[in-house]
Amino acid sequence: MAGSAQDAEDLLQEVFLHAYRKLASFRGDSTLATWLYRLAVNHCLDVLRGRQKKMQRSTDSLDEDGAQEPAAAMPIVPTAVSRIDLDRAIAKLPDGCRAAFVLHDVEGFEHHEVASLLGISQGTSKSQVHKARMKLRALLSGAAR
Amino acid sequence: MNCHEYELELGDLVDDTLAPERVSAVEAHVSTCLRCRATVADFTAIRAATRTLEPQMPAARVWTSIAAALEQEQQRRAADATQALPTKWWRLTGGALAWKPLMAAAAMVVVLFGGTWLAWHDASTRAGRQATTTATTAGTPSTVEAEVQLAEQHYSTAIGDLEKVTQAESGSLDPDTAKVMQANLAVIDQAIGQSREALHSEPASTVAQESLFDALRSKVQLLQDTVALINEMRKGNQEGAARIMSGMNQ
After folding, report:
1. Which DSSP string do the residues of B112-169 spell out, in sequence order?
2. Contact status of A84 with chain B (Cβ, < 8 Å)
3. Contacts of B34 in chain A (CB under 8 A)
4. What letters, b where the CB count within 10 A reaches 16 and e where it falls short, cover B27-60?
């Protein structure tokens, strides 16, 4: 979600400190893992929002930065995508839709869970994941060339 | 329906989360639409690729850095907690705790406070002859004496309140730890006594004034830490007690 390993490391440290400071507020309504996960996601999103000013703007920018749906009548993504290419492509996703995509496609959350974690509607979660996939499609087809 | 209307449902089809009543319609469209079929094939390839991604583990140095940051946070909290005293929170009850590791840390306090006193003692002796000059620049003797007396009175009040608490609750401390604390207080009291003597003979000496206030502050600090320590030990919170001792050692 952070977009780079260095940012992820910085965020990891911030999340642990944040969790340490807020540990007293953990009431046991959920498991500690769920609480920590939510805390981490929220903190990451706060940082991403600060970076992008507005998450919506970053999502909308998908359509503005050449990520339009490729008008392909044939599959353009190689059947065997290398991990390196995939990592690079995910890192290039705008922050907003990357968060939804990572939570849904990589972490395996359902759309209603993604929606809850990100504070968006289920429809928006679907829309963002779709946009991320379309953007990845374009990026990975380019990487294959 | 055109392709745009099926757009989001293509993802559901790939995820196998499409509403049952929509499956046949979407599959029928995909079977006749080359563009949507290509999109589904690519989405499937992307989804398959993401499944192969493994969790990225941070480097070992990151954990070291996090541990250091948490340690700093603990120390900051301990310092903040000590600053917040005195309040009524020490009245929380809990079981008494014998906590031997405190002894090593308590011994450090003796060294720290002893060192402070020795440093003051040397400085006071050296600076004694300069007292008259200092008094000239610091203000009139009567004004200085009044200010010193007022400040000392504030410290004495705080110390008296804290001593009442520590004496009433001293049974919660491990006897060996209590003994070390008493020894520490004796060292500080000795420094206070000598500072007062120096100040009495040379009321305008800023060195003597600062030494007295340093010693008084040290006593307040030690008593506050002792109260906090008593509370943590009564609660059986070894971690909290360790944090306090860590703060005392700084």
Report:
1. HHHHHHHHHHHHHHHHGGGHHHHHHHH--HHHHHHHHHHHHHHHHHHHHHHHHHHHHH
2. no
3. 73-74
4. eebbeebeebbbbbbbbbbbeebbeeeeeeeeee
Q: Is the pLDDT of residue B61 over 70?
A: yes
Q: Does A72 touch chain B (CB under 8 A)?
A: yes
Give the C-alpha separation, B101 to B243, whole Å: 12
Interchain CB distance below 8 Å, B62 and A12: yes
Please compute Rg for chain A using Cα positions. Answer: 16
pLDDT of residue A71: 62
User: Average pLDDT, stretch A5-12?
Assistant: 84
Half-sphere exposure of A26 (CA within 13 A, CB side): 17
CB contact A79 to B (< 8 Å): yes
Query: A51 or B104: which carries more pLDDT confidence?
Result: A51
Mean pLDDT, chain B, whole residue set: 71
A77 CB contacts (<8 Å, ≥6 apart)?
A136, A137, A140, A141, A144, B41, B42, B45, B46
Provide the shortest C-alpha distance from residue A69 to chain B (in Å). 9
Residue A46 in this model has a pLDDT that exceeds 90: no
- Cβ pair B7:A73 closer than 8 A: no
Whole-number Å distance between alpha carbons of B224 and B222? 5
Task: Please tell me which residue of chain A has the smallest CA distance to B62.
Answer: A9
